[in-house]
Amino acid sequence: MRRVIPSILAALMLTACAVTPETPVSPQSQRWAHDATLNLPDMRLHDPFVIADKTQGIYYLYTSNVTALTGSPDKGVMVYKSRDLKSWSPPSVVFSLPSGIWANGGAWAPEVHAWKGKYYLFVTLHNEDAALAPVNGRKPYRRGTIMAVSDTPDGPFELMNGGEPVAPADLMTLDGTLYVDRAGKPWYVYSHEWLQVGDGTIEALSFSDDLKAHGIPKVLFKASDSPESAVQIQPDGTRAYVTDGPQFYRSKTGELLMLWSSWGNDGYIQTQARSITGELSGPWQQLPRLLGQDSGHGMLFETFDGQLMLIVHRPFKNARGKLYEMRDAGDHLEIIRQRTDLDGGN
């Protein structure tokens, strides 16, 4: 999350795992293992997203491209790979922002989801020179999550829809994700930027089976609904509440939980919410935070031996990945312990 200056997989990942196709073993997958010499403390990353591909026995960790690490000057997405969450390969680029589309920056918060035999990349782009209508003195600009597709999690991912955002282009949005409900229907869920709405929201759009969004966005909740989310006073006096990084999880008792991040009184935070009805439409009950310590934009995945894990980035600047063993407590998630043996601690 980079939008605010602080004033000082059941339903998503586990559902995605359930529909993961038989992954073709790509040449890239066959070559990388002997180079897996990095550890998480060495790995620059932000907004990490992990796929645990059981077919190949590979963990894929996606993040924004870092030119100094990949040699590619392009805005885009890179991936680290590991077999044990401890030793990781140097990153390789799986998506580069093509020239000629509306965006010229970003490549934030990449996520990769399996759907009907393909792998779909969701990544947030922007163009600060493409102004949207001002709102109460705030000056939003074009930002939105686009999609790309590949036959394998190794990419390369090919741009879809001409690079246009999934949500309407006049909305300033970010951190889009795929949610599949209990009936097997896909939904697009995203954060609506505080710069446009003041009090950031989490919103949902209906997806068709070919992942085309349609209908009217539905607001699931506002950032200020959570007592964990603190107002951020910007240099120009603007008041902001932030929503960031939604991800869903269906618990062992059938509860629908959502991870999301915001700014608290002590920096970036990882928090959670629960749908009272067990459905996407909610209403949503805000739960206590999972993490402070300038931690956030977390996501859940399951290890090859069945342990539920959370990965977040910390600190907000010059971030590294931090791993936590998690407990599914039914109506909420709990941290068991930080895996300092894997992430180096702190």
Automatic annotation (TrEMBL):
<keyword id="KW-0378">Hydrolase</keyword>
<dbReference type="Pfam" id="PF04616">
    <property type="entry name" value="Glyco_hydro_43"/>
</dbReference>
<keyword id="KW-0732">Signal</keyword>
<dbReference type="InterPro" id="IPR023296">
    <property type="entry name" value="Glyco_hydro_beta-prop_sf"/>
</dbReference>
<feature type="signal peptide">
    <location>
        <begin position="1"/>
        <end position="18"/>
    </location>
</feature>
<dbReference type="InterPro" id="IPR006710">
    <property type="entry name" value="Glyco_hydro_43"/>
</dbReference>
<comment type="similarity">
    <text>Belongs to the glycosyl hydrolase 43 family.</text>
</comment>
<dbReference type="GO" id="GO:0016787">
    <property type="term" value="F:hydrolase activity"/>
</dbReference>
<keyword id="KW-0326">Glycosidase</keyword>
<dbReference type="InterPro" id="IPR051795">
    <property type="entry name" value="Glycosyl_Hydrlase_43"/>
</dbReference>
<protein>
    <submittedName>
        <fullName>Glycoside hydrolase family 43 protein</fullName>
    </submittedName>
</protein>
